[in-house]
Amino acid sequence: MLVYILPFVSIVLGYLIAIFFQPKNKQNLKLLLAFSGAFLLTITVSHLLPEVYYHEIEKEIKTELVAKQENHNHHDHSHDDHNLSHDLHNHDSHQVAEVDNHSGHNHNHNHGSLKIIGLFIMIGIVFQIVLEYFSRGAEHGHVHIHEKMSKIPWALFISLSLHALLEGMPLSHQNNLALGIAIHHLPIAIILTSFFMQAELNKKSIFLFMMFFSVMTPLGTIASEQLSFLNNYYTEISAIVVGILFHISSTIIFESSEGHKFNLAKLIAIILGIILGYFV
Ligand SMILES: [Zn+2]
Ligand SMILES: [Zn+2]
Ligand SMILES: [Zn+2]
Ligand SMILES: [Zn+2]
C-alpha cells in the first residue's frame, strides 16, 4: 500500500509546504535536492539496477531449463532406440558432446540479452534529455522561465507527467524505490509550486497541476500491475527508468555543486543520501 501512497503524499506535502511556509531559504532547498539526488541514485544502483539484471537472468535460466527438459525427453526417447541396436559406449560419448554444445550456447545467449539492457538504459537517458527540452529541467528542480504565467504550461505538464508515470512502473516489483521517488519529488514539488506562485499562475491552476502530477506515479504502478502488456516488458521498461533516474539524479548532484567549490554542507547531504539509500 505504501508503494502507492508515498510518491503521492510527497508531492502533496511539497505543495502544502510551498503554499503555507513559502520557503525563502534557497540554500536549504538545495541541500534537500542534493540529498534526494544521492538517495535516488543509491537506490537505483543498489536495488533497481541489480533487480533488472536478475530478472533477465532468471528468465534466461527458466527458458534454458525448459529447453533442456525438451532435449532430455527427446534424448531419452532416442536412447531407448539406441539400446535396441547399439552398445553403452556409443551412448556415453554422445552425451558428452551434447553437454559441451549446450554450455557453449548458454554463454553466447546470456551475454546478448544482458547487453540489450544496457541499450535500454541508454534509451532512457536520451528519452529524459528529450523530455527536458519541454520541461526545461523541472524534473531535477531547475526552473528557467521568467515571465508571468497566465495559463498552465502544458509542455512542462506533459513531460513531467510522463516522467512521473514511467517512474511508477518498476515500483510494482521494487517497493524500496517508492521511497526514493517520494524523496526525489518532495523538493521538486516545493520548487515547482513556489515557482508557479512567483509567476502568478492562478491558484486553481497550481492546485490542479500539482494534483495531477501527484497521481501520475501511483497510476504508473497500477498500470504496470494491471496491464499484461506492460508486465511482459517489465525488464525493458525498468531499464529505461534506470536510464531516466541515472540522468535525473546525476544532474541534481552535478547542478547542486556550483563551480565545483568545496561545500561541506552539500557534501554531507550527499553522503547522508548515500548511507540512507543503502540501508533502505
Ligand atoms: Zn539460451
Ligand atoms: Zn537543469
Ligand atoms: Zn521523478
Ligand atoms: Zn522482481
TrEMBL record:
Domain of life: Bacteria
Transmembrane segments: 6-22, 29-49, 116-134, 177-197, 206-227, 233-254, 261-279
Record-linked Pfam families: Zip (PF02535)
Membrane topology value: Multi-pass membrane protein
Cellular component terms (Gene Ontology): membrane
Compartments, as annotated in UniProt: Membrane
MF terms (GO), sorted A to Z: metal ion transmembrane transporter activity
Family matches, as InterPro entries: ZIP
Keyword annotations: Membrane, Transmembrane, Transmembrane helix
Major location category of this protein: membrane
Entry keyword Repressor: no
Keyword Membrane: yes
Protein's name according to its UniProt entry: ZIP family metal transporter
Record organism: Paenimyroides tangerinum
